[in-house]
Amino acid sequence: MKEKAISVMVEYVPTSHSPDVLAENRKIECNSGLAAEDLISTRCIKPEQRQVPGKCITHLIVQLRTTEAAN
């Protein structure tokens, strides 16, 4: 059974953030005050290979388990 997820766009994230690293997601949960495992996944809106070289920020799509976490 597929789990329901709420998608949220997060703007102006440093390009040093790696959405593929699980530790980064746990760091975001801790810093944002989210409950453990509320953050399902993060991904860049524009793939890294299509971004302008030298760009300092990017935008992410974050998937969360609950609407409370999204708010």
Concise structural overview:
This protein has 71 residues and is of the alpha+beta class. The chain has 2 helices and 3 strands.
Defining key terms:
Alpha-Beta Plaits; 71 residues; 3-stranded antiparallel β-sheet
Account of the protein in words:
The structure is a single chain. By secondary structure, the chain is of the alpha+beta class. It contains two helices and three strands; from the N terminus they run E-H-E-E-H. Strands 1-3-2 form a three-stranded antiparallel β-sheet. The relative contact order is 0.35.
Topology record:
Blueprint: E1 6-14, H1 22-32, E2 39-44, E3 57-64, H2 67-70
Antiparallel strand pairs: 1-3, 2-3
Strand order of the largest sheet: 1-3-2
For the record, the CATH architecture stands as: 2-Layer Sandwich
Please tell me the total number of domains: 1
Could you name the CATH class? Alpha Beta
Protein structure class: alpha+beta
| Counted beta strands | 3
Order of SSEs: EHEEH
Shape: globular
Largest pleated sheet: 3 strands, antiparallel
Rg, nearest Å: 13 Å
Taken as a percent bin, the fraction of beta residues is 25-35%
Nearest-integer average pLDDT:
84
Low-confidence stretches: none
- Give the helix level as a range of percent: 10-25%
According to CATH, the fold-level topology is Alpha-Beta Plaits
Termini Cα gap = 25 Å
What's the total helix number? Answer: 2
